[in-house]
Amino acid sequence: MSQFRRYCLVSIGLLISSGWVQAQPPPPAQVMLIGTFHFNDPGQDAVKTKSLDVTAAQSQRYLEVLTNRIASEFRPTRILLEYAEADDELLNGRYRQYVDGDFELRVNEIYQLGFRIAADSGLERIEPFDHREIEWRAEAMLDYARANDPAALETYEARIAQITASMQADQDTLTLRQLLKKHNSPADFAANKALYIQTNDIGAGDGYSGADAAASWWHRNFRMYANVQKAAQPGERVLVIAGAGHVAILADLLALDPERAAVDVRPLL
Hints:
Blueprint: H1 3-18, E1 29-36, H2 57-73, E2 78-81, H3 88-99, H4 109-120, E3 127-128, H5 139-148, H6 150-173, H7 176-183, H8 186-198, H9 209-231, E4 237-243, H10 244-256, E5 260-263
Parallel strand pairs: 1-4, 1-5, 2-3, 2-4
């Protein structure tokens, strides 16, 4: 061994022993968002539709391919689903039954997407990230419009009717793949957020009920994103599945987050 090489090896050894050469930190967390429609619409939103039957053979075949693809290509280490902490024990009990072959998947995206991907990924559990203490507080806005701005109320109701008709037409004519691709597109994200901006000026200068209603929706989603941040620590690959109305805002927050990297789900759809 040459004297120079011996010197280099000794120098490297000294650097390691002194702590100058440290292990590389884990990479930033990767976060993949999936926006969905409600597979079994509970009728709790302003827009109510009859959903596509995801139990039909064509949809089930697509779900099997999609969930396996996400599990094998993204390889999530954690999966966050749109349910409350209070339901965690119940849903994880059902998830364990599903893994054991003792639970038939129900018509809900938590089961049809979340359970399948978690099982295909070999995960021991699923996790909640919803926050329901703050909902879209539109009552004061609508009350104000009824009493003081009937034109604004008429415009709002016409928009809801138009959105409902358009979404129902999609449910009636598009495949599950086409629906998921649409719900995860930038255009759909923009349309989801536009309604809140279009009602933002109701009560402007007189209580600001429209702005407060819009702020309540963003407030809820900020809290939901805080739960994503808590889970998405360095080195994790976190899959987040929620209604497209939530994901439209979560995607904006993720894009602004310097400590987490967004992974686009669209190539996998």
